[in-house]
Structure formats: C-alpha cells, structure tokens
TrEMBL record:
Subcellular location per the Swiss-Prot or TrEMBL entry: Cell membrane
Membrane topology designation: Multi-pass membrane protein
Membership in a protein family: Belongs to the NKAIN family.
InterPro entries listed in its UniProt record: Na/K-Atpase_Interacting (IPR008516)
Keywords (A to Z) from UniProt: Cell membrane, Membrane, Signal, Transmembrane, Transmembrane helix
Transmembrane portions of the chain: 34-55, 62-86, 152-171
Organism: Phasianus colchicus
UniProt gene name: NKAIN4
Ranges in coiled-coil conformation: none
Protein name (Swiss-Prot/TrEMBL): Sodium/potassium-transporting ATPase subunit beta-1-interacting protein
Length: 208
C-alpha cells in the first residue's frame, strides 16, 4: 500500500498518540498523579503494539489497539468528569493519587500566569521555611487544562479507532486473497505446467 493509505495514516496517528502520551506522562509525574501515570504507561505500551502491528502487517495487534482505544476514551471521559466535578466527583479529592498524598495536578501551581503566594513558618522546627498558601493570577484554571488534554486524547483515539478498523479490514482482505501454496497466483487454478514434448518422447524410448 502506498503512503497515502489508511496504513500510513494509522502510523502517523500512533506516533502522535505516543508523543501526546509522553508529554502527559511527564506532567503527571511532576504532579504525583499515580492513577494517570499507570494509565499512561499502559497506553504507551498498547500504542507501541499497535504501531508495530501496523508496520509489520499484524492485524491481531491492531485489533488489540482498537479495543484499547475504546477503553482509553472511557478513561479520559472519567478524567474530564473528575475535573469538572460531574456526578459527585471532586477535583480536590485524592482519588487520582490513590489516597496516599494530597498532591494535585502540576498545572494547579504552574499554569500559565500562575503566581504562588507563600508565607514563612516561624517557631516550628523540622518543617520547611515556607508554607504554600494560594495561587493567583492564573490565565487559565488548571482543571480546564486537564480537560483539554483529555479531550485531545479522546479525539486522537476516536480517529485512531476508525483507521484501525479500516486497516484490519484491508489486511484481512489481502490475507483472504493470498494463495498459501503459490502466493498471489496470476494463473488459473486449473493451470498445470506441461513437460516439453521432446522430453516425453525421450522417456518413451528409454530401455527397460
């Protein structure tokens, strides 16, 4: 297939997904968001598997990738609901950190235009000299940044799912049309290679 086919488009989409997942993984690590870190890690593995299957013409790997895209869309919808506090969810809960820390998204303190306000802690030994109080001046609230990240992931995953199904169907059709004995046989099935006539005569006069 040429480079303008669904296969090459799927390769591009998988590469784009890898870059987006790696970028998201970095910021989730900085924010100690353990649940997204694990989800991103699994996502990266499956996308690499889908990329390998697309390059090496392995439809089974692409099927696994297509199934995972549906799971990935569901996960990102949950993330959107979490940060928009839909259905009783709270963005201030410790759900994404497995209740082992009170960290929030890295963007909550380092978003565009955000300024941290700190106050010194005096008379308390063993603690840091500064205590975080609030963040002001953010041009965009951090939850909307997380929502945009998840929305972009959903968009790529949906397009990737469509192209994955298309590529699997193309690969399946090619496998069905392949003759495992003679390859892609351009001759009819009833075609038999006949021996040269002179060879037949020679075999007739062989001594007993």
């Amino acid at each position: 297939m040429g480079c303008c086919t669904g296969r090459c488009t799927l390769i591009f989409l998988c590469t784009l997904q890898l870059l987006a997942a790696l970028e998201r993984q970095v910021f989730d690590f900085l924010g100690y968001q353990w649940a997204p870190i694990l989800a991103n890690f699994l996502h990266i593995i499956i996308v690499i598997l889908g990329l390998f299957g697309t390059i090496q013409y392995r439809p089974r790997y692409i099927v696994v990738y297509a199934i995972w895209t549906a799971v990935w869309v569901t996960w990102n919808i949950f993330i959107i609901c979490f940060y928009l506090e839909v259905g009783g969810l709270s963005k201030d809960s410790e759900l994404l950190t497995f209740n082992i820390s009170r960290h929030q998204s890295w963007w909550s303190e380092n978003g565009p235009g955000c300024v941290r306000k700190e106050a010194s802690m005096s008379g308390i030994a063993g603690l840091d000299s500064h205590s975080y109080i609030s963040v002001i001046g953010c041009a965009l609230e951090y939850r909307y940044i997380e929502v945009m990240h998840s929305s972009f992931q959903i968009l790529i995953a949906l397009v990737g799912f469509v192209y994955a199904c298309y590529v699997v169907s193309v690969f399946t059709e090619e496998e069905d049309s392949f003759d495992f004995i003679g390859g892609f046989d351009p001759f009819p099935l009833y075609h038999v290679n006949e021996k040269p006539t002179n060879l037949l005569f020679k075999q007739t006069y062989l001594p007993a």
